Amino acid sequence: MPEQSPRPTLESVAERAGVSRATASRVVNGGEGVREALREKVRRAVDELGYVPNPAARTLVTRHNRAVAVVVAEPGSRLFSDPFFAQQLRGIGRELSAADHQMVLMMVEDQHDYERVGRYLAGGHVDGALLFSLHQPDPLPDMARKVGLPFVVGGRPGWPGAESDHDLVYVDSDNRGGARLAVGHLRALGRTVIATVTGPLDQTSSMDRLDGYRDVLPDGDPALIAEGDFTPDGGGRAMAELLARRPDLDAVFAASDAMASGALRVLREAGRRVPEDVAVVGFDDVESIAAWTEPPLTTVRQDIEEMGRLMAGLLLRRLAGAGAGAGAGAGAGARPGAAGGAAGGLPSGLRPGGPTSVITPTRLVLRASA
User: Fold this and answer.
1) Is 23 left (phi over 0), alpha (psi -120 to 50) or beta?
2) Are 239 and 256 in contact (CB under 8 A)?
3) Which residues have CB under 8 Å from 110's CB, separation 6+?
4) Which single residue of 72, 105, 318, 344 could bond 333 by disulfide (Cβ 3.0 to 4.6 Å)?
């Protein structure tokens, strides 16, 4: 069996290019201060020798892992069964891949996992973190801050002091406005006893959607409000609770499509026709749910994949700013610029010196359920 030729080293690249090892290292690792003619010689030597940089050595030189932790404060059973998370992770993954960054997915099954996640974030394995589906109070943002790790939050932060923290960056949809669209549509249909199934009330998205419901029905009966958990079973339990309390209800706004699917099942089992007896509106417009319920679900659309992409893009801009000498503060830091930069296109409202967080629009999608 013929002997394999030794793996080319950085020294052999430098020798082939006729430059110093330090110059070759700067070119290979994306450093500055090398003339273009020398860069071209090093690139040609890399191609001719088939040189592949050592990731560990590259990390030591650049102090970058090109890896991002995506921490979801949900158990795996929910993360892998809910298509909402699949869409959001797809957006994150595509944006990170386009920037040659790896995604390290971490879940919080219970309180014991916070220590494990905290050790990993503090261990220098990743350059930044995306934190989402947070429940209040959640220690993840403070854990990232304490180790100086840049992060972006998915969803409006609800902890004390978050609104006045100008370094904090998040991506969310117009949850409150979307809920107003849903409930306003039900009122326009002539429905008079409109219930709602909320998400977990320790999450800001749930509170914002409940506030939107109350904006339209400020004098509504508290018996028409039941808390769910963003799952079909939770939506079904809440719907059964609402029917027991107010059998005269003629409409329901469910704060997620998954919960709406559970509500539709319970209404069907109770002999209620949709939309003739009870009109139903969801939230999310998750295609694998909304278009396949019976009847198809009228819902509020938020661009879930785009929200994931924006989260990753904002963090990449933060990391690029830190790499260019910007401060490495604990929030998401650098002000995003105009659309089309290193992190991909961002809404045009994100101008230099402008706001850093992003609220994406929502719209009503009409189908047969309302």
Assistant:
1) alpha
2) no
3) 75
4) 318
Whether the predicted pLDDT of 305 surpasses 70: yes
Give the model confidence (pLDDT) of 149-175 as tens digits.
999 999 999 888 888 887 899 999 999
Q: Evaluate if residue 335 carries a pLDDT over 50.
A: no
- SS3 of the chain: the string is CCCCCCCCCHHHHHHHHCCCHHHHHHHHCCCCCCCHHHHHHHHHHHHHHCCCCCHHHHHHHHCCCCEEEEEECCCHHHHCCCHHHHHHHHHHHHHHHHCCCEEEEEECCCCCHHHHHHHHHHCCCCCEEEEECCCCCCCHHHHHHHCCCCEEEECCCCCCCCCCCCCCCEEEECHHHHHHHHHHHHHHCCCCCEEEEECCCCCHHHHHHHHHHHHHCCCCCHHHEEECCCCHHHHHHHHHHHHHHCCCCCEEEECCHHHHHHHHHHHHHCCCCCCCCCEEEEEECCHHHHCCCCCCCEEEECCHHHHHHHHHHHHHHHHHHHHCCCCCCCCCCCCCCCCCECCECCCCCCCCCCCCCEEECCEEECCCCC
**Which tens digit of pLDDT belongs to each residue from 82-94?**
999 999 999 999 9
- Asked if 248 and 238 touch (Cβ cutoff 8 Å), the reply is no
Find where tokens 């629009």 sit.
361
Higher pLDDT, 367 or 333: 367
Structure token digits, residue 213 = 């419901």
Q: Which of 180, 160, 178 is nearest to 168 (CA)?
A: 160
Residue 33: the pLDDT is 79
Cα–Cα distance for residue pair 91/308, rounded to 1 Å: 5
What is the mean pLDDT of the segment spanning 280-289? Answer: 95
**Largest CA-CA distance found in the chain, in angstroms, rounded:** 85
